[in-house]
Amino acid sequence: MRILIIEDEPSASKRLQKMLRELEPTMQVVGVLETITATVAWFKDNEAPDIAFFDIQLADGESFMVFDQVEVSCPVIFTTAYDEHALRAFKVNALDYLLKPVGKEELREALERWERLQVVRENAGLASDGDKEDAAPVKRFLIRYGDHYRVVEPKDIAYIYSMEKNTFLRTTEGKDLPMDESLDRLEKQLDAEKFYRINRQVIIHFQCIKELLAYSKSRVKVIMEPPFGQDAVVSSERSADFKRWLAGSA
Predict the structure, then answer these.
(1) What is the dihedral of CA 96, 146, 123, 168, to 10 degrees?
(2) I want to staple 49 with a disulfide (CB 3.0 to 4.6 A). Which of 4, 41, 95, 141 is the partner?
(3) 3-class DSSP assignment, residue 69
(4) Which residues face 142 on adjacent strands?
């Protein structure tokens, strides 16, 4: 794990490095920077680290200025003594926001969150490669909503649907979560034995099917639990394949 630290307080930097080494003995600190200018120059000249820890108040301004001047493609964890910057932090896709003095358990949880993110990205990369027929289904999704993140496993998904050009996941407990990817991409990432795209708007999990009703033109209407709120009808061109999928012979 390659770590970059942006921190202008030497004592805080040393304390953070000590805890990181205790939690991740194999980690490598690739740089310790104290200013916006030095940080911008570093990102322009170096490969992105695995994680960057950003203090917010630096000697020459707020570290948010870095994101206006250079692309920061790695996950970012903010460490700061001020809690009023949390919303701005998550607007630049922060992975976490830790208040000083940072506790060891807080830091451990942030690193575990980073590890889960890597698993999601690796699996998504495999599943989205259309040339790999043996690509494994995604094991879990990392979903951001507002200033929160949530990890959702496929078994906890009732269905995924699109509405007004946006994509949402509805959990088995009935909670809607926004997703960044289209149904076309998500369809390739899910286990085809458990998930089926019944039409252009909905991908369902087998477990969410409460009832099946005959519909016009040989179509099938799916009653889902939790309720979908509108008709979920298997398109006529998919009906025969859907019935084979239900029988486990698709």
Answers:
(1) 170
(2) 4
(3) helix
(4) 151
